[in-house]
């Protein structure tokens, strides 16, 4: 047993496996042997008995066919093809039966004598059938039939014997197969039994081996190790004499144990040294405590001072006595607080100034914004008015051009009128000449009338002298005289008319001449008008150009004004945010407590900085807001008011 | 000078215009009426004698009747007419401004000239009222004396 313990765990397991393998191999060999035996038995059955049986059956069939072929020969005429085929079939069947019996004997030598006897019987039967066929071929049907009757008995007997033989063979085969099946069952049972026994033995051996030879020593060793880990170094490490892995592990655990003992010894030494150091430290701490008391005073004072500073009290000064090494801190703190207070006082004052300045800037920016808006509006109106003026001037220019063309027409008309006038004058002078001619003719008529009158008078005179005889003549003479007088009167009337007509013609000529002069004057004046109208048109065009330039300039001004307005808006916003920042600064400054002269300044910016807020609120309402804003500005800054008015006027 | 009788009703008179006034001459004393032609002056003739004219070969003196009647010198015009008068056996040309009409004397038309003391009655045989106004009938016998003595006497 001790020798087994000294084996390695792998070796122990290998031994166990070998035992298991031996058992398995025994079982397997037995099973193989048995299977081989059964296989041989079956082979015998299959290779010998079965083919012999098959050949025997085939021989039986051939014998039957032999009879069938003989009958075909007999029933048909001897010369016919059917008869010949029947004879051939009968012959081949007989040969087949012989061959089948030979083969059967070959397959099953144990039955060879039986098969030879059967073959002999088949040959005897065939001799009979062969004779019957020969008679059938020679058409001796009666003899053939007689012979066949004899042969039929033989064939039937033979077939029945064959069947009996074959059945016996089949029974033999079945018996052999049952025997083999029993052998197989026995083999299976034996194999299972031996296998189960082997497995149980192997299982028991394995459990024993794992528990007593491997697990138990390891468990013991683990207990010792846990005790070692728990600090118990007095534990005895067993199993060091073992040669297996457990022995090796026990040796290693012994090393651990030795190391632990050594470490415990060294720890004791270290504790001694630590106690010495502790004593030294206590001494130094006492010294430090004394020093700390002094520092605490300084730190407390500084803490209070810094706390006051943090709370915004800049008037606080350190009064406590400091140790000589911290005295510098006290003076430095006091001077720093003083400097800080002074600086903050200045800052507070400056913040007040900034606040008032930013409020002024904010108001001024508001005013500027408003005026810029007004200016922008005025500029827009100006631009619109300029557009209208431009349109008007353009119209004027067009009108002037139209007037020029109309005046040119008038001029040409006047010139044509002059021609008409001269033509009228010519016509009038013609009329005058005609009138003169008419006057001359009338003079002639008048003269004739006069002479006629004279002649009539003379006639009257002669008639009167003639006395009663001349009475009729006197009447004629008086009639002639009357005619002459009427002629003379008519001539006189015509003369008067002609003279008045020629007078009027003369007047007409004068008037026409005057008209001609007037027309020439008109022509010259129209020329002047043309010149003037052309000048007007040119100047109107120049005006239009000039107005365009003015328009461009106004547009540029408008843009600039709008940019100014935007900039003013920005500056207003900036100034307002600056004002609020100043207020915030003042508020922050108020948190600091400063000596009396500084404190006055801290309050002032807060009050002064208030106005910009309302101004911010008022901004959207331009009109009213401006008035009140201006009023406020005037109240606050009387000096700024005149300048503002000047701006407004500007 | 003999008082010439007033012409009976039915007699014919020729009315003439001298200096705007109408005068009448007995048609029986008138030989011819003709237009004015410039007369040839007669030296040393009285003022009312204008000169001489040739009437179909007969030289006749031409008397300015206006001037002779004291109405001022006539200015011959286109209507001026020379009346050839027969006084006795002499013929004269009488320049008048114009011949107006032949007037037939009716009963009661002719009246004696008013007696105003002067020798008006020597020159005017009678007066008559017409539509045109009052017309004086000249007495050529007294107006144109037959001799130069008579002329002077009358003048």
From TrEMBL, chain B:
Source species, domain of life: Bacteria
Classification via InterPro entries: CheW, CheW-like_dom_sf, CheW-lke_dom
GO BP terms, alphabetized: chemotaxis; signal transduction
Transmembrane segments: none
Domain called CheW-like: residue spans: 10-149
Coiled coil: none
GO cellular component, one term: cytosol
Gene3D superfamilies recorded: CheA-289, Domain 4 (2.40.50.180), SH3 Domains (2.30.30.40)
Cross-referenced CDD domains: CheW
Full protein name: Chemotaxis protein CheW
């Amino acid at each position: 047993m001790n020798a087994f313990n000294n084996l390695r765990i792998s070796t122990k397991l290998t031994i166990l496996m070998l035992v298991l393998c031996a058992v398995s191999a025994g079982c397997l060999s037995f099973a193989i042997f048995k299977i081989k035996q059964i296989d041989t038995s079956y082979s015998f059955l299959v290779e010998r008995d079965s083919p012999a049986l098959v050949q025997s059956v085939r021989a039986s069939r051939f014998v039957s066919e032999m009879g069938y072929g003989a009958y075909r020969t007999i029933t048909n005429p001897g010369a016919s093809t059917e008869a010949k085929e029947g004879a051939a079939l009968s012959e081949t069947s007989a040969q087949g039966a012989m061959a089948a019996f030979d083969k059967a004997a070959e397959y099953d030598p144990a039955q060879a004598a039986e098969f030879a006897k059967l073959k002999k019987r088949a040959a005897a039967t065939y001799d009979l059938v062969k004779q019957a066929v020969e008679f059938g071929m020679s058409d001796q049907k009666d003899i053939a039939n007689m012979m066949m009757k004899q042969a039929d008995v033989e064939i039937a007997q033979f077939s029945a014997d064959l069947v009996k033989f074959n059945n016996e063979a089949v029974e033999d085969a079945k018996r052999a197969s049952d025997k083999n099946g029993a052998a197989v069952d026995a083999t299976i049972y034996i194999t299972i039994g031996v296998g189960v026994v082997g497995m149980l033995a192997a299982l028991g051996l394995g459990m024993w081996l794992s528990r007593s030879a491997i697990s138990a020593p390891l468990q013991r060793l683990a207990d010792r190790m846990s005790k070692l880990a728990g600090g118990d170094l007095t534990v005895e490490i067993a199993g060091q004499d073992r040669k297996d892995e457990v022995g090796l592990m026990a040796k290693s655990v012994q090393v651990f144990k030795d190391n632990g003992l050594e470490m415990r010894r060294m720890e004791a030494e270290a504790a001694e040294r630590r106690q010495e150091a502790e004593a030294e430290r206590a001494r130094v701490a006492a010294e430090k405590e004394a020093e700390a008391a002094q520092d605490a005073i300084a730190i407390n004072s500084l803490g209070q001072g810094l706390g006051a500073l943090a709370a915004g009290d800049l008037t606080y000064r350190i009064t406590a006595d400091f140790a000589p090494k911290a005295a510098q801190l006290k003076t430095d703190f006091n001077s720093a607080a003083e400097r800080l207070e002074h600086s903050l006082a200045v800052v507070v004052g400056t913040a007040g100034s900034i606040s008032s300045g930013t409020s002024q800037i904010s108001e001024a920016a508001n005013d500027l914004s408003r005026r810029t808006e007004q200016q922008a509006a005025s500029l827009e109106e100006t631009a619109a008015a300029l557009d209208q003026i431009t349109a008007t001037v353009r119209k004027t220019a067009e009108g002037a051009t139209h007037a020029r063309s109309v005046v040119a027409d008038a001029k040409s008309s006047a010139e044509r009128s002059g021609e008409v006038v001269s033509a009228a004058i010519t016509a009038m002078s013609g009329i005058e000449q005609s009138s003169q001619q008419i006057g001359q003719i009338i003079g002639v008529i008048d003269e004739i009338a006069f002479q006629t009158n004279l002649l009539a008078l003379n006639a009257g005179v002669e008639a009167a002298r003639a006395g009663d005889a001349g009475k009729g003549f006197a009447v004629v003479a008086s009639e002639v005289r009357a005619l002459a007088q009427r002629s003379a009167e008519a001539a006189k009337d015509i003369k008067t008319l002609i003279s008045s007509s020629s007078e009027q013609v003369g007047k007409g000529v004068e008037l026409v001449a005057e008209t001609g002069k007037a027309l020439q004057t008109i022509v010259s004046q129209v020329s002047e008008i043309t010149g003037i109208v052309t000048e007007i048109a040119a100047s109107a065009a120049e005006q239009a150009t000039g107005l365009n330039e003015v328009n461009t300039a106004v547009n540029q001004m408008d843009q600039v004004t709008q940019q100014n307005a935007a900039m003013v808006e920005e500056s207003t916003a900036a100034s307002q945010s600056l004002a609020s920042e100043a207020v915030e600064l003042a508020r922050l400054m108020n948190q600091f407590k400063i000596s009396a002269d500084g404190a006055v300044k801290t309050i002032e910016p807060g009050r002064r900085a208030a106005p910009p807020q309302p101004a911010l609120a008022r901004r959207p309402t331009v009109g009213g807001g401006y008035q009140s804003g201006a009023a406020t500005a005037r109240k606050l800054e009387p000096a700024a008011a005149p300048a503002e008015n000047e701006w407004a006027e500007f | 000078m003999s008082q010439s009788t007033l012409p009976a009703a039915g007699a014919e008179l020729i009315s003439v215009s001298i200096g705007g006034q109408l005068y009448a001459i007995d048609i029986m004393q008138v030989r011819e009426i003709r237009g004015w032609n410039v007369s040839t002056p007669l030296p040393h003739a009285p003022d009312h004698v204008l000169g001489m004219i040739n009437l179909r070969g007969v030289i006749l003196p031409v008397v300015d009747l206006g001037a002779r009647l004291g109405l001022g010198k006539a200015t011959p015009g286109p209507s001026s007419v020379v009346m050839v008068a027969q006084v006795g056996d002499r013929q004269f040309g009488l320049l008048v401004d114009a011949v107006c009409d032949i007037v037939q004397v009716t009963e009661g038309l002719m009246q004696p000239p008013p007696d105003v003391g002067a020798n008006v009655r020597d020159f005017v045989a009678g007066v008559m009222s017409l539509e045109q106004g009052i017309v004086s009938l000249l007495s050529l016998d007294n107006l144109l004396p037959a001799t130069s003595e008579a002329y002077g006497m009358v003048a």
